[in-house]
Amino acid sequence: MLLAVGVLAAMPASASALEPVAQDKPLAGKLILLDPGHQLGNSNPRFAKQMAQKKFNGSIVKGCNTTGTATNRGFPESTFNWRVAKRLKAILEGKGARVEMTRSTNSYNDWGPCVWDRAKKANELNADVMLNIHADGASARSRGFFAIAPALIKGWTDDVVKKDRRLAKAMIAGMTDAGATPSNYVSGQLMISRTTTGLNFSNVPSVTIELGNMRNAAEARRMSSPSGQQQYAEWLAAGLENYFAGR
Hints:
Elements: H1 2-10, H2 15-18, E1 31-36, H3 48-51, E2 54-56, E3 61-63, H4 77-94, E4 98-101, H5 115-125, E5 129-136, E6 146-150, H6 161-178, E7 190-193, H7 197-201, E8 206-213, H8 217-224, H9 226-245
Parallel strand pairs: 1-4, 1-5, 5-8, 6-7
Antiparallel strand pairs: 2-3, 6-8
């Protein structure tokens, strides 16, 4: 008996006892750039000159950024996007990812950055994914989330469009499986856009997720609450995990 105990004591601990289980850090080594859409100060008249900047995006000439939408009670999309992004950042870092943000504030005294500069940051970081977080402002009966991926534009998106499409489809599947409400007004939850500047300027896999409709009363209540914001963040995390798992 003593010999058995001694032998056991001398045996090395198993790898699973010494190292975290791989499933605990499923996003280890991944670099994700989160883009909380808009900025609270984009509506500030002080920044009218900055907002007036325009660039050709491969399809049309569009502006630097916009104010975004809001609920009927005035809760701004910018703030919703920001709060979801901060919650999502914590979730993803807990899963082992390195997470960067395109803006560091949500303030009436700050503007932008311009959407092309947000994409430029993704390119400079060589991010594994750029996730653009938004909410829609559609008719009151419209509800649910959908993804926006870029169209094929020669010289602009042709180097990454297939990866963008795979990312969008993986986000849709992962979020739906996690319980997110599918859009009832965008077929298949996927919109292909030729005119979304941030997507067209990005050279890394990128997708815009419209998490829901701020003009729908039920979704507006969820978006305005901390528990709802956490739920949206968890759904987005499920979509990203699905993408990186290659399912």
